Amino acid sequence: MFLISYKKIRKKVLKKYGFIIRAVSSRLGILAVFAGVALTVAVITLSSVKVLAVNVDGEHIVIRTLNNDVYQTMNESGIEIAPNDIVDMSFNGSNVDISITRTFPVTLLVDGVNNYQWVSGGTVGDLLEQNKIYLSGEDKINVEKDVPLSSGLKIEVTRISTKQYDEYVSIPYSTKIEKIYFGSSIGKMPKNVKGVEGVRKITKVDTVVNGVVTESKTISNVIEKQPVTEIKYEAVKGPTKIVAGKELKYSKVYTMSATAYTTVPGKTGIYTATGVKVSKGCIAINPKIVKYLSLGDKLYIETADGSYVYGYGTINDTGGMKGANDIDLFFPSLADCNLWGRRTVKVYVLEE
Question: Of 86, 153, 159, 299, which one has the fewest beta carbons inside 10 Å?
Fold first, then answer.
């Protein structure tokens, strides 16, 4: 019976520990060998066993093993560890404390870029803080910051900003053709006026969402510089003017608006601005406004429809007329002035 028991023990030890036990003939020797083997097995077992204390999914699991591969041991014990789970280990001799924290995926969409992350918990605000993502201005988020993170949660941060800027646009100038009418010969022409473009300042505000302009508003539109009209003068040789059977030689002819003035005893002087005594034929202009006529010019004036002829005169007086085409004609009496009123006239500048 003893030999059978020994053989069974030898077989178990050899299978589990790989030890080779030699048979001894004497019973005493067999007992000694058996005792030695038992002692050896006990020493090996006590010195090699490891105790794993695993905290996972709210449970505390204790595993005793001779296997040095901790992960293999947990797997064989039915504890599955996903690739992104967090495993913390601390070693104290043959004791190993293991903490497994499960993780789950969330999606963080910022600036149009999807960022997939594995997290173990916390709130949306915690995740933003960990990734150093801060909201400013008019930025928006689709989930409140205090919402707990959960598997599959999609967090979208929308960047919103405004940008103000100025645009300067050219204002085209217009072109005006002015014809200068001459008589029998063409005299000196005025210089053309060069056109200059104006400048319009437009202030806009753009709304930018995730780097893309989604709206543009104009908040101001002002003209900073008015355009200057281009003036081109064209000489026109007019038909010959016959006055009292004679050809009237003139260099230019203008269409103007003529008023009348006279002297009032005790209220107005009797001399013109050039010192000439007033009389029929004295003509006044405002030289600051009327640039195409000058003091001393000799004129022939008649109404535009030819119904009234003022006749010959000389510009030898000045007045405060406001219009660029205003001219003032002297008449001997107030009644004549009232009869004249204001009329459109043709003014012929006579050749010297």
Answer: 86
* 139-153, 230-244, 321-335: least confident range: 230-244
Total residues belonging to the chain: 352
Q: Does residue 66 share a domain with residue 86?
A: yes
Domain boundary among 231, 255, 270: 231
Is 284 within 8 Å of 328 (Cβ atoms)?
A: yes
> Which 3 state secondary structure label does DSSP give 44?
helix
Quick count: other Cβ atoms within 10 Å of Cβ 84?
A: 13
| Sequence-ordered alpha helix ranges (H) in the chain | 2-17, 27-48, 70-76, 124-130, 334-340
pLDDT tens digit string along 188-218? Answer: 788 999 999 999 999 999 999 988 999 999 9
Domain that holds residue 81: 50-101
Question: Could you tell me what percent of the chain has a pLDDT over 70?
Answer: 83
Per the listing, tokens 């990734």 go with 131
Number of H helices, E strands in the chain: 5, 21
Residue 310 is encoded by which pair of tokens? Answer: 């003022």
Structure tokens at 203: 């202030």
Three-state DSSP at 9 gives helix
